[in-house]
User: Fold these one by one.
Assistant:
Number 1:
Amino acid sequence: MGEIMIDITLTLLQDWIWDARREAYWPSSIELYGKQIGFLVYLCAAIAVIVLLIGLYRNMRVWFRGKYDQEEQNFTSFIFGLIKRGFKNFFSRSFPKRLYYGIGSGILKRKTMQKSSFIVHTMIMVGFLGSAIATLTLTIHEYVFHYKLLVGPLYLLLNVGADISGVLLLCGVVMAFTRRFLREKPYYERAGVEDLVLLLLLLWISLSGFFIEATRILYGLNHLPLDIHEILYTNIDFEMTSFIGFPLALILGFFITNDNMIFTIHAFFYLSHLMCILILAIILTFSKFFHVLAGVGNIILTDIDKTKGQVKFHPDGISKIEDFTFYQLLEASACMKCHFCHNYCPAQDSGEPLSPLKVIQDVKNWGKQQYGLTQSNKDVNMLGEQSGLTEDVLWACVTCYACTNACPHLIGHVDMIVGMRASLIEEGNVPSTFTTMLESVYQYGNVWNQPKRDRTNWLKEGKLPKIKKSDSKLLWLPGDTLAYDPRNQKVARATYEIFSKSELDYGTFGDSEKNDGNEMRRLGEEALFQMLAEDNIKMYQKRDVKRIVTSSPHAFNTIKNEYPQYGGEFDVVHITTLLLEMIEDGRIKFNSDLNYEVTYHDPCYLGRYNDEYESPRKIIEKLPGVTFREMPNHGQFSYCCGGGGGNMFRETPEWVETRISEKRVLEAKDTLTLPIQDDHKPLKKILVTACPFCTSMLTDALKTQQLEEEFEVMDLVELVNEAMGTSPPSDESSS
Amino acid sequence: MNILVFVKATIDRNAPLDPDETFPGDRDDKSDVMTNNYDKNAIEAALRIIEEKGEGKVTAVCLGSDMADKVVKEAIAMGCHEAIRIENSKAEVTHFYSVAKILAAAAKKVGEFDLLLFGMQSYDYGTATMAPMVSEFLDLPLACWVEKIAFNDGKVIVDKVIEGGIRKVEVKMPAVLSIASSGDFEEPRYTSVRRIMKASKTAVPVWEIADLGIEEKKPSVEFDDIEEPPARTEKCVIFDDGDASELVGELLGALKEKGLNIGAYK
């Protein structure tokens, strides 16, 4: 009995499934209201397409003002190059990475995204794409397959899919509305007319879609039995798969009885739906919605394998639109003002006029201003008040990479800013403190305006081993700041002591060491960087160094990522990596219990630029008696100390109330003064870092914030040295 | 508008000092020589004037040996249109008076100029006498320590620094000005290494002192001998280890021991 029941159900269900058909009885509104409406609709569509094309042309016109791949390349060969590059990227091994970036920033949650923003964006993106695909399929069904495609399960699938997409879009838009206009969100204060219009359009598109569906179903329900393509249907229950449209039709059924009313309502929603889509197409290229095209283009064309630690710019610098590369201008177009870069920018946070978002928008707007539809103003200087890219904006960047790290569209803010700085350098338009520092590097090879012969003055007792010719050894580069800055000379001595106690075989250049050039390049002084890089590479190669260990993450970054361009491939590590190795293989032994409570500040050039987050933390973990606490901003979201990109040497402008370093110190204070659960009372509280610039900046901030009583700033090296104790264990055993 | 800027090659601020040296710019190592930093203010002033006027030429003039080439080329890198080096190998001429004569003669040889600019003093000797002396030899009006420059047909109106204030002076052109290191020209522009590289390829004409038509061949002042001062016998004691109040006591005690009258202290 049961089996028969199941059989009957299955047969019924099968009929139901296989017979499902999209009702073609529905006279399209256009036909219903006569040829005039039809003509108008096609006219509007034509206008929309023309405007869309014009908008695209306008954007592209700016892009093609940028520099091509090679100098003196003509337009056609560049286009071919682009197509080739696109294809190559599409079919190369980097494709999964690109797909990950594309989908990753749109649908999956990227780490930089806040949870709610990612959910909202996913809903809108999936909803919009799903609805668009459903509508397109219908068109194909009607015009290409002549009503023979969407039959049976395929049709039901479409019904379900379309309604799910519609619901996602609707909910996403509503959530976006609340996020932008109802919830108090400081960084959405700029949400304006553009956001409102776009969201209203999307809202109406999704709502009217449901009503169009409902009225169609309602008509069918009212006219049973129904003839669909010469098959007589007594019921259209399969339409229940439109799980929103069907109930809506039933509800509408209570109010709407006659056919004329259904037609009128359907026509209203149908036409407004269509118009909204046309308006969307019209404003597509003029609004942030353009990111759906430019963003995809950028992800396909961008150089995804570019190392983070390299900054790329033309040595002439960027002072006008024509100086950007094609790809940079494309990037600028892809910006959809998501504000992630703006929110993560420490300079912006401290009250500087710099906002990475605004820089990109300024570039984009300047390009459009100079190259409109018809007029073109060639070679107009853009740096200054006229575009908003003033010197104050450009020098405020600490090159901490937080903006590019946060950008879902792979926009290279830092490269653009450094490029524009290069043109300021070329003109000589440089703050006087930078002038002193750069001239000092040119003349004396160090940033501190000190004589070369004083470079090893930090060493009070003992002798620094010198590396000799073809002396295959480990080279230690203390760097300028460790050598000359009084606070950091302590770090230099601590490093020296560690090396002596652990009997490390190493060498230094002594007085003849030179600046590494990382900061010079970030300031846009490319020629000086090249000079230093070439000199240094020659020096390292002449001494045939086996391995390089640097005390500064800045030197580490440039030697690792930028020297290879000038023919210098070296095995280079930062001091924390070397120390961890030495601890792990037992060359460093800890003898004294520290009883400290510490938190760690990630230097930008070690963490974000070179993904070295673990070694310092592992060392801290191994230090005896040290309790570790993590600050809220850590790892790739670490705050900056404000000393990167040469800003260590910049006078803080008067509009900055709390400097970047001070903000960081206050955050450390909050972390370090959290109540401790057990009665354990640490001897000292310490903010640990691993970069001379950070140590120096944070120590200063500690003084200005009068927090010296609360905690100290120390380099990790100093902690390791302290934990090793005063007398070296090896000496004890030998004596 | 033609402007002549006189620049000096001085000893680098970080170079080791040598008491036997008579002409500080004359060193064997190029890295020991630098452009007198006050002269950079003068170059900056000249370049700004030209930029504002939109026409004209800045020529840098330097007296020195081939070590001074670096200085001349830096002036070109900064933006000077031309440069002249007057050969002074083996430091033939060392005294200010003779140098001023040579510079005045060089200016005469150049002929067409509206302004002669100097830095306010030199980094090494710091006598600040070159501008006044040259103006005297050429019989031209002079304004020293100029902070600000404005033009009014054929005349130049300058703000010059005087003790406790600024004096506005109107000077007829051609004139000699020495530019202060404060005010409008306080921050000379940065010269990028690229510009220095480019400038290092330009050829600079070298003039001989003999061609300038100076009557006095012999330097008017000669250094006889340089003696070191007698070595000190007193030793310097620094009291810095311990409590401040105790240290003050120790210090006063030591002073009293030396026989110094320190009043009521016992």
Note: The longest strand of chain B covers residues 142-152.
Number 2:
Amino acid sequence: MSTVHKGLTVTVTLDEQKIPYVNGLLSEYRKDLRLYQEKYRKSLPGTFFISWLTLPSQVYQDRETLPARILLLTSYVGSKSRHLKELAAFLAPQLRQVFSQSVEFPSGEPSEEKLVQFLNQKSIPNTFYSGFKFISTAEVEQEAQLKSEVLSYMQKQESLGPASEPATVKKAIESFVSSHPKLHWASGGIPFSSQNKVQMLWPLAAFGLLMLASIVSLIALLFTDALLFRWLAWIFPVFLLITGALFLLLRLNENNPHEPSPELSDEKVREIVALETNPVINEMTVIAPLKKGWVRRVFLALTLKLVGLVAYFAYIPTVHTARWLQMDKGKRLVFIANFDNLSEAYAHDFVDSERRSMNMAVIFSHAFGFPATRWLVHKQYNHRSEYMKGVRAHQKITQFWYSYNRDLSVENLKRNRAFREGLFKKMDDPAIKDWLLTI
Amino acid sequence: MSKLEKEDIQGLLVRGYGNLPSAKYLLYTGSQRKETLDFILQLIPKITPASEKPANEALHLAFTYEGLAFLELPSPVLDSFCREFKEGMAELQRQFVLGDTGENAPQHWDWGNEPLHFLLLVYGKDENQLNETLAGIRQLSDAKGITELYALPTGLLQGQKEHFGFRDDISRPIIRELLSHPPQDPDSTFPAGEFIMGYDNLYDELAPSPTVPPQLDPNNKLPEHRDDSNLKDLGKNGCYLVFRQMKQHVPTFWEYMKANSSDPSAAIGLASKMVGRWPDGSPLTLCPFQPDPSQSDTNDFEYWEQDKAGLKCPIGAHIRRTNPRDHLVTEKSRKDSLEMAAKHRMLRKGRPYGPPLTPELDPEIIMQKADDGKERGLHFICLVTDIRRQFEFVQNNWVNFHKFGGLENDADPIIGNHYQNERRKTDSFSIPEYPVRKIHSSLPNFTHIKGGAYFFFPGIRALQYLTDND
């Protein structure tokens, strides 16, 4: 068991002519959602976000047409099988109605079990980021309520003023929480905290150990000729060699003339931003074919694997969840993010910081129309404007979008968690004062 | 570093005209294209370039998108302007982005909904000089059948204050290219391209600028676009001008402070927490407990080291939102915060309007005065090269976003739109304190938008091109 956040991406091909019909269905579900928001929340208790859209065909390398598709992208907490069952149980009619438009869907009316199998078969891997790691859907509300109750309590406590000792204040809060019937749950620790970290970090640890073992074996080979060392010794040099060769090939590819994205018409931009009307959280889907050259596909695939390994340490301000993946044999890059406020503001999080614009280039520089780079991360010309143009040019309209949490920003969620984490934890006075600022 | 073409830049971009205290902003609509072009043509020689420091009067001219369309600029030229400018401030999506909803919605504005064509900003060394200049302009406009829709008065207030009684306009970005000896620290100044089109900005690129295909500039008035030799740069040496008339409810403001404080001094303290500076201008970050007149002009302070938690100057205070300096809660380093904040600055050029509630603008006296029923406020004017990145970003993401900096229900306490509905509550103000933050609720709107529009503020060659376009 864990409360690690994950992303499910299901995709099937679609006859381009059926796009308007599927879009119509998805738009209807979006309208229904306004009426049945609570029903969704109750019936999909492990699901944070759902984006469901159609993708028209796109042209790769000026000659290959990549097929039209249906994409279902969800963010969830817990196990994949439980999530699939949850989706199939609640959204079965909608899933059948939409996916049956694809030739890849099983004939007839598949049972829920078959639907789960179908979703599983059609799911593809992604590199996933969460800005509020390890918080479950239920905890979103619990922790908000906890903080709100404690705040009300503190505002009524005339005896706890500026002259009170930090330890006294903390003790009073903890007594209040322990004795409050609705907050008693917070007296225990945060569940799965160690398991969560292990689950997220073990692939990185395994990778690091493998590389370390290889380096050690290289050294050991100076003293011994054991078979295990001989095998292990290959791994690190081969990894370095492949990465180095890919870098060189990429650098050569970067000399191709930059082809900017055609600017999106004002009408199209209006159509996209017209859906960004939620007061706190909004969504963005960007899908672009890659730039010419097989090296782009391979380099991006390797990059996404490595980014996935370090996702635990990644930080993107104001982003609830984000994911990157490749489709159609690596020829398309898919990026989807759920973020605070509007897409214009969110896009600035990338381009306004020199460091982050370098990080962003590691992935986006492979996509068609995105800014040209040198040695992957170094800017060429008009980096900022080309990036903003690239995002808009490849941004897709998400016909159906659902969010479990609609009212709390990432920073709100993190502060609520920080407050809970500090409860019943030993702290010195300065630490208590810092902790009290999270209320 | 490129040299500024000051002869081609309208002087307002480099001066505030403190020596010309009288000013009026005139909003016009033309009825006949040819007459309007004649009118503009006759005004061009009177426009004050940045190369001059006028002692008596100054005149500046800016156009709305409707104005440029009325002058029949060719479609490829009109299309090349940014979407925000083309849509205009009162458009539905722009309303949403700017938070101009409810009481602040354009349907309640005095101006800005009707087709405005251009704006004249007229400055004089005194009222006589101003009236003389205005009389000359009116004679010309009457002769050409140009309708003056509004003449918005201004009046500088004592001690560089605004109507609530606080020192204003202390933090101003400095254009690097204007300094004869630019400082070693590049963070303290800004490249011209942040505020003037045709020069490098903070991203080492040109801001998006309106352009003209060469065949539409047969008289070769315009310079070539640096990034595209197939286009002429209509924006070079110009910028966008954002104008918002903001009515200030001075009695409401001080009534709220008094109602939520134990005594007048605490009321001033609360108002100062909302602003982020004491009424005399001294910053709370440096003087958290009482004002220090010696710090009235101080702008050299930061938050990352001095006040990260907002215990001195609250995270949601007005000055921390409009210029977060080196600390944004969502950033993990001082460097990232600095980089982020720098990319959303504006050159403010507005002036107050209406009579002060009390001439000395001392908060202790203001708060004792009853409402005199007179209108007063601020003509907020800012100059930017990118409306969306600079003005709209700040207004949307920092001023009105109620989740700014990890807050929950707090829009900017001074200029934010305060309201509650089923999806959003924006009328709180949180003050971080030990042992627990203090929350002030049900803030009324202390300001109201009464009008506004986006203008193109062209360079002088571009002005000549506009009148030469037949």
Note: Chain B touches chain A at residues 83, 86-87, 93, 96-97, 203-205, 208, 227, 309, 328-332, 335-336, 339-340, 343-344, 388-389, 392-393, 396-397, 401-403, 405-406, 408, 423-424, 432-437, 439 (CB under 8 Å).
Number 3:
Amino acid sequence: MVDLRNKLVLALGERDGIPGQALQACAESAGARVVYVATQCFV
Amino acid sequence: MTTRPVIRAARFVLAHVPDLVYAGSKPRRETAARGRDVRAQIRSRLRTFREAVAYAPHQVMIGNQAPEALWDLPRPWHLHSPAEAPCEGPAGAVVDQPTFYAWLARADTARLIRFDEAFVAEAGPLVRGADLATASPDALRSAVASGAEPIGDPDGRGIGVLLPGHAQDESLAARVLLENLATKATGALALRRLLDGVAGDEPVDFLLGCGEEAVGDRYQRGGGNLAKAIGELAGIRTAGGADVKAFCAGPVHALIIAGSLVASGLHRRVVVVAGGSLAKLGMKFLGHLASGYPILEDVLAGVAIDVAGDDGRSPIINLDAAAVHRVGDGGAPHQMAAVLTQAPLRARGLRLSDVDRFAVELHNPDITEPAGAGDVPQRNYKMIAALAAQAAEIDREGIPAFVRRHGLPGFSPTQGHIPSAIPYLPHAIAGLTTGRCRRVQLIAKGSLFLGRMTEMADGASFLLERNAG
């Protein structure tokens, strides 16, 4: 288990996987500071 | 007067254009960063026309093989395809580069192409009768130095160059115009193919474009209506036209709208059209080179889909079971799958298991997996199967069997909007008429967030059903 409190997070989501915004919400709820968020499409 | 809309036919044309791979976005960027060696690496792994024709997924695209045949073909498929196969099939054709160039020449109504004198002399019947502007090799080199775009291998022999549409307008830069001309030519090839084979004597009332190109000048970048230009090039005079824009979800949105136009009685025959994406040629080439594969993204794909009133035979677009992803719907994959697959079925008292086949984004996994992008259709099918398990239609152990029974292997070239469900249409029409299928659901998704105007994705779906007559 990683303790995300006070950590800086780059949230890179994928369209068919987990969207960047969902990663951001999870990371922030665990006390991290999200400094970049994006969702990518690889096709 | 209203009628039930049907899909009578769909045709695909794959234009094999190995010399245009260098003009794809990724090869172009890698060449700029790492030099001309990149082109040499690409050149060493390009396929011949015969190899591209015989490639099993392409044979599925043009209807000579059923998609299900790919389940049993070992991968990678380029190693297990036959040496020879027909370039024409019931669902379309693979055309060679000279044929594509001839259509590109005819598509150039602004007369911005300057052809290599030697090419015109050798092209013979393909461009006979065309009034082509030619230039010497020195003049062509000089044009490239001034912003013209080479058409063909920049280090070898191309057919000439494309001049910018305007000296200061970025929307009319030569490389932008080449993308749009390539889209126009491949869309027209598919449309001509459709009308040569299906009800050629019945007028087309309306053309709905659904590609991802942006046609316009600096004051209306993306102004569009390439549909009419495609119709003109294909020799149609009766049709009006307009474009539907929704990233990769465009074709399914367009089919729902086309069905609505026919159902309302406003139009009797609507053809949904799109050309291919030059920018996506060679998109995954680094993965292909690293895996020792040929460059598999060497075809531009055009499509034309015929939507008309009920003929008592062709499968029906069930507009009561059409769905769109709304602004307030969640964007996580399971939420999108629920909105686009389960919800419209439930509203009609159907279960997921009542659908014979789901057609999702049918990207060829041999193209995507070497580049780390995974097997896109299988990911989507597992999600639908998981929803079926959640709804207690199957148990968890039944997920792989559900995927095999209701899913498909991916077989489409990665041409953006082209893979989104529609490559299955020719096979779905066969299954729903002469085969045993009762219903097929077509599901498309679009990555709206790529345009930086929203964080949202998009999607649309509809049910195609057997016509009881």
Note: The mean pLDDT of chain B is 96.
Number 4:
Amino acid sequence: MRRLALFLICTMILPTVELCAGAKPSKGDKCPVCGMFVSRYPDWLATITFKSGETVHFDGPKDMFTFYLDIGKYRKGKNRGDIATITVKDYYGLKSIAADKAYFVCDSDVLGPMGKELVPLTTAADATSFIKDHKGSKPLRLNEITPAVLQRLQ
Amino acid sequence: MQSINRHYNILDFAIASLLRRKGKNLALLTIYTLIVALIASLIFFVQALKREAAALLQDAPDIVVQRLMAGRQDLIGLENIDRIAAIRGVSEVTPRRWGYYYDPVFGANYTVMADAKLAPQAGMATVGLGVAKNQRIGPGDIFTLTAADNSLILLNLEKALPFESELLAADMILLNPADFGKLFAFPANAATDLAVTVANPREMVTIANKIVETVPGSRPIMKSEIIRTYDAIFDWRGGMMLLVLAAALLSFVIFAWDKATGLSAEERRETGILKSIGWETGDILLLKFWEGTAISLTAFLTGVIMAYIHVFFFSAPLFAAALKGWAVLYPAFHLKPFIDPYQLSTLFFLTVLPYTAATILPSWLAASADADSAMRS
């Protein structure tokens, strides 16, 4: 009986635990780029999930892009092709969205945990409205973000 | 071991010497204890009230939007809901309908709120315990409210709200929106205010500014502002109480200072005798230190315990009237025990340390004097 219960727990709960683990950083998770504790800044969370199942959390999209543009430096032998998903937190709704769908606004007056940030927004209209309120330059898409852009945010 | 024994013996002697002047020291101890108890009560009470308010306001809406008409709060039109919901970053806008109802028979003011969840049908009502007690009704009973057109509205009491929500809901009557409209002749297309939920707290100020722009004549009130106001009110009231206590406090300080610093001739002679029978200056200082510590520590601990009992077991009857509020149906609630170690240690350093220091200094002067002249004087 006990074994059956254990089996049920393993089959029913563990998969969900695994899914959740990918979405939320634990208390001890540090950003691989700056070394800060990620769970303290849930509003700025960015996450890269590799096809191998490994998830890496960042305390802001800026650090996520620093990692993304130079993966080999942080994870030996991995490249962009190994990435399954990238998620960032939408500024207005604070919900996780896919980074390839997001609009990123830099040079705004909104600061993240690491100072100047690429603020992720869900739609182009959100981005326009955000730029109106918080200044900022033209919204960028995932593939438009280059090391030069990050350099500007240092 | 030997040094502990030395302390123990000196402490023993100190207590014996305190008991020799029983009346004077007992009077000092009593006043000292009362003063500490008063101040500690005040600190505990204000702190506990602040926490209680903050805990309650945790569930308050992020922004409350009111409409102003000639500088007074007025009803806000429901057409504004869509306008505010369209602002980016706003996740929800709910209209709230509430008001005050004065019951001339029982002489009490109730807060009446339209709530479709707790009063799903017309004729149903849920009330706070204060209202139930005041009207002497229980679940299943029928009571009446006088509507704006002087007709009577019959209401069936569904249930009384439980004790936990008493602070918030003692004077609350929850009605079905239809009854609420009838009771106050409340227009259907308006609300008392709008509760706005904002996902990102960083956007709060921007959204508040936009609300003023999109809904002219409106006044957005942010949760942080409400919390700050409550804090300020409790601080202000606590400060007023402290001011009232200041005279008592000051007279105690003078009394204690006089007692602690001015060595009587008798005490000076005692010091001289102790020195002549072989006590060292250090021993005498230790004796005085233990005397001072025994009195101030006893007073501090007893005072703090008395304050704790006063505030958390009896809900601070001494200050309640001045510090809580002024509503007739004020809820009988018990404060959750909470002690701020920072404030307690501040109180400790402000009472125990100065007193102990004040007892040691003059005796150091006396103890360093010549034994012979000390005995003669």
Note: Residues 4-22 of chain A have pLDDT under 50 and may be disordered.
